[in-house]
Amino acid sequence: MSSFTRKGCSSIFNLRNNLVLWVWILAAITVASTVAVVVIINRRILPFSQNELAEVTSRNAEHQIAARVDDAIIYIEDMQIAGIDPSALEEWTEDELLADLAVDRGLENVRKSRLLQARARQIYLRDELLGNTYMSIPFPDSAEVLQYMNCDSLVFMVERHYYQILVSEESMADSIHERLLSGENFQITAERMSIGQKAGIGGDLGFLTAGELVSYGVPEAQALIEGLGDVVTTDYGWHIFLVDEIRPLEDTSRAVRSIADDIYRQRLQSARDSLLVIASAGRDVFLDSTLLRRPDADPSTHGNEAE
Fold it and tell me: Which structural domains are found in the chain, ordered by start?
């Protein structure tokens, strides 16, 4: 072998040895670095595990899951805040499963869901505000109610024996009123035509003060009648009233209870109106009045007329 060849082999061998040496050096540095990092991490994690483990455990306990469907969760803490009864959990779970299935089948209108969520938030916050406000409004006592009643004795200190016919359409009320004016029997007509709760007994509402009738939305002038009144509209429908007897107030306790409820409702409504004035100040509010339902277009006929 020539000297050139021996020198080349020697150079290659030395290079190989140098590469091996550097590999070992780099490996040693890597191992040392890894050990150092592990030691540092252990030193940092150990105090956290010891000092904060109890706190983390406590926080998890406070947020114990009451029910879960995938990412939808109800915590026990949230149930207490929202007043959810534990008996409703099974229903909530089933409803969430069905809702998810509806989404999977493409039945969700995202815009509608968003509007419903906003409406639910509106109702929740409205009730929180009104409930907080109403708590400070006192219920009138008997002395206060009697003083109020004595200020208008014709409305509150006189009883009238009322009969009523209640129907859902204005044209029907007008037709019945014409027949009554012609002499048709009021009580028999009430039994046949009225949708009121007292229709079965000829529409007999018993003795009431005009003020009690006014509290149901009847105009005062139409409550202070003798004989047959005109057709009157309220939230309940179209009414025809008949008064066949008038006397001084006898059942004072009944009238006081009824008027006290009405005074309290007026106070609540006044407080609500005041809140609306405050809330609307400085805000841009628009309401398309053409979309509002007219009172004579589709009246409510719940049958909860004055009794």
Answer: 153-255 (3.10.50.40)
Q: How many Cα atoms within 13 Å fall on the side-chain side of residue 161?
A: 6
Instruction: Give the SS3 label for residue 65.
Output: strand
pTM: 0.63
Residues 227, 244: Cα–Cα separation, whole Å = 6
Q: List, as one string, the DSSP characters of 156-186.
A: HSEEEEEEEEEES-HHHHHHHHHHHHTT--H
- Residue 196: CB partners within 8 Å, gap ≥ 6? 164, 165, 166, 190, 203, 303, 305
Longest dimension (CA), the chain: 147
Most confident of 76-85, 146-155, 289-298: 146-155
Radius of gyration, CA atoms only, the chain: 40
Q: What is the DSSP string of 224-271?
A: S-SEEEEEEEETTEEEEEEEEEEEE---HHHHHHHHHHHHHHHHHHHH
pLDDT tens digits, one per residue of 178-196: 999 999 999 999 999 999 9
Rounded Cα distance between 126 and 133, Å, is 11
Q: Do the beta carbons of residue 233 and residue 296 sit within 8 Å?
A: yes
For CA atoms 234, 197, 139, 259, give the dihedral sign.
positive
Cα–Cα distance measured from residue 92 to residue 80, given in angstroms and rounded to the nearest whole number: 15
Tokens linked to 298: 């589709």
Q: What does the alpha-carbon distance between residue 18 and residue 20 come to, in Å, rounded to a whole number?
A: 5
